[in-house]
Amino acid sequence: MRDRMPPGSYWAGWAWSRMFGLTEPAMRWFGVACVAAATSVVFSTARRAYGTGPAVAAGLVFASSPNVVVQAVEIRAYPLLILFSATVYYALVRLLTSPPAFRRRWLGALTGFGLAAAYTHFFGLVVSGGAFVSALFVFRRRGDRIGPVLIAAAIFAIAAAGLGPFVVASTGISSGAAGDPAATKLVGLVRLGYRLFSHSAIAVSWVAVGFSLAGAIVALACAAGTAADPRTRDVTVGLAVTVASGLAVVVAASVVQSWFNAAAAHYNTWALPGLAVLSGAGVGARNRLLRAAALIGVAAVLAANLYGSAQLACHGEQFAHGPHRPIANLIRTLGSEAVTVIYDDPLPGAADVSGAVYWPLLHEFGPGLKQYSHLAAGSERVREFDRPAVGGGTDPKSLGTGYILVIRAANASASDVRDHVRRGVQPFGPGPLAEAIAQSDRWRPTETLLIGGFVSAEVRVYRMAASSGR
């Protein structure tokens, strides 16, 4: 499979695998370790900026966020992006709060952490650029020399130029993407604003959504109040400018191009550490009413986050990227040597997302598990998955020696996943390959498995008529 990511997360994952192995659990623990470290950095950033109470609030808001919890177990670049983004915010706060003699050190740290974030994910450029803009803004505002900041930013830009070949390769992957209409882009940006503070696991309950959004608004409004305090003005303004300027870049990227979705929530996890620190800022306010309001806001956010995390604990598979795990469990139960997998036509008008099942199953069972896809839309013949057809394809009824799993997969929206949790998954209905196999005397249907999630699936199980029962 082709990926758009820069090499940083692959290098880090390789180093981790040399110590702990290249197994799925080991690589998921790498993500958990990254997010655990990021939580510690968020706590340290808030404590440096605002004190111990705000640090505890920021750490709890960050660690309990379903957005963070979900990314923590991903074998992708995002846990590492979250960690390096947190270190960028930390270096920025240290830069803004340190005496002149130590600023060069923290400018170097900001440059290094920014490059680590950029070489992990392209959106590391967004948080790093926002931090440099913020440093320039605050230094200029209080009359400090901006020359060192400009030099550090120039060094960062030169070093980040090494991403050029990866940018070119990335654009090549998606260069044929169709443009989204303006209304779709606007909806995507509004959804991003919502997703920075909430999650589809929270959206299982609209009450929890209300707590999440209202609490975030109150907590951030109280953070804005700390900008009037000379002790915390610079860090509050600095953090706010970093997040705001980064989001401005995201809005501009969403408007001017369509080959990737700049407003995707997972791309913008760089903002989560900064928003968590700002969310806890008001807890340390001098004004008693402001401090009380901030505590109420943080408590509301925590209640919503804990509700969402509980939903993840109870219905984790529903919020996963793909349905391969329940399917893999079924294959192991039946015996992988006796199973043939066939991917039926996608639902009418829907994208073919069968690769979200095929590739994980290939990784888990290897090429010994035979997997086939439809020869063409509406066809009743198949070919080996990810292989060119041989002749006129193969009759699916002639395949297998024990069981055939006919899988029909489809993308689902966050609201669809919410409905899966609330009311269960609705049947897709058989595709042409399932219908052809069902009409054969050679195969007998035994069960149908419905799997919810962002890639949901209907799995129809057929047993060879001459074989013994399951």
From TrEMBL:
Q: What is this protein called?
A: Glycosyltransferase family 39 protein
Does the keyword section mention Cell membrane?
A: yes
Q: Where are the transmembrane segments?
A: 26-46, 52-70, 77-96, 116-139, 146-168, 201-223, 235-255, 267-285, 292-310
Domain (Glycosyltransferase RgtA/B/C/D-like): give its ranges. Answer: 6-159
PANTHER family for the chain: MANNOSYLTRANSFERASE YKCB-RELATED, UNDECAPRENYL PHOSPHATE-ALPHA-4-AMINO-4-DEOXY-L-ARABINOSE ARABINOSYL TRANSFERASE
Main localization is membrane
Does the entry feature the keyword Transmembrane, yes or no?
yes
Q: GO MF annotations for this entry? A: glycosyltransferase activity
Q: So what EC number does this one have?
A: 2.4.-.-
Q: Which UniProt keywords apply?
A: Cell membrane, Glycosyltransferase, Membrane, Transferase, Transmembrane, Transmembrane helix
Question: What is its membrane topology?
Answer: Multi-pass membrane protein
Where found in the cell?
Answer: Cell membrane
